[in-house]
Amino acid sequence: MADVLLLDHGHIAEIRLNRASARNALSTSLAEELTVAAAAVRDTGVRAVVLSSAAPGAFCVGADLKERDRLTDADFMRQRLVFRRAFTGILHLPVPVVAAVHGYALGGGYELALCCDLIVADESAVVGLPEVRVGIVPGGGGTQLLPRRVGYGVAADLILTGRHVAAAEAVQLGLVDRLVPAGDDLRVATEMATRIAGNSPVAVANARNAIRRGLDVDLAAGLDIEDAAWRATVFSDDRREGVRAFVERRPPNWP
């Protein structure tokens, strides 16, 4: 059985972690399949992606430490390249990605969620970056993505203590974006993706690009990035169709 499933929901693709017997622990093979799934999404023309889990009680518990216990130093380096391709594949998907998180999302599992644009977590969710507790550091983007999401202090708290954070505190700290009742993570994440997919693909892409590029520059440079995004959008066929549809009081048919 495949460790990663790619499901077609029309304008939305769902990438589903499917190694339920190991609570989606990140093995080399799962990471390879995740890279393939992310690459396949690029060729589908979808407008949004949901990253989900088929494992009861877990989104992803992080790296498969049982597998790692058998690796040589050379094996570690080979696996490192595989893992980087998997995380980068999710992070650089060309459309918005919504993570649907329930249960444990730890280490590399939480880093996969951090690679997404939005994180929906249900009340059972527990997140954390506990790598220092087993003698390693986050390697799936956690030391860079988490501070950009929540600031230095909260990120240092999680990364340096390695503590687990339950859902209620996680949403307060900004570690996840939306807290929903237990069992509703996939439904709500899909609803969010559907709403995104209903908007202008050109506008969504340019707005998302402006947000991401603006994170690493000062305000003046960020406003220039926004201006370029505005110009790229306002002269598009999507803008013409969006305004026309509004005036005619009908749903837009995005070109």
Keywords:
enoyl-CoA hydratase activity, 6-stranded mixed beta sheet, enoyl-CoA hydratase, Lyase 2-enoyl-coa Hydratase, Chain  A, domain 2, 255 residues, Enoyl-CoA_hyd/isom_CS, 2-enoyl-CoA Hydratase, Chain A, domain 1, Enoyl-CoA_hydra/iso, 2 domains, alpha/beta, lipid metabolism, globular, single chain
Descriptive overview:
Helix 4 (108-114) crosses helix 5. This protein has 255 residues and is α/β, with parallel strands linked by helices. The model has no long low-confidence stretch (mean pLDDT 96). Strands 1-2-3-5-7-10 form a 6-stranded mixed β-sheet, with helices on both faces. Strands 4-6-8-9 form a 4-stranded mixed β-sheet. It folds into 2 domains: 4-197, 2-enoyl-CoA Hydratase, Chain A, domain 1; 201-248, Lyase 2-enoyl-coa Hydratase, Chain  A, domain 2. Helices cover 49% and strands 16% of the residues. 41% of the residues are buried. It catalyses: a (3S)-3-hydroxyacyl-CoA = a (2E)-enoyl-CoA + H2O; a 4-saturated-(3S)-3-hydroxyacyl-CoA = a (3E)-enoyl-CoA + H2O. This is enoyl-CoA hydratase. Its EC number is 4.2.1.17. GO terms for molecular function: enoyl-CoA hydratase activity.
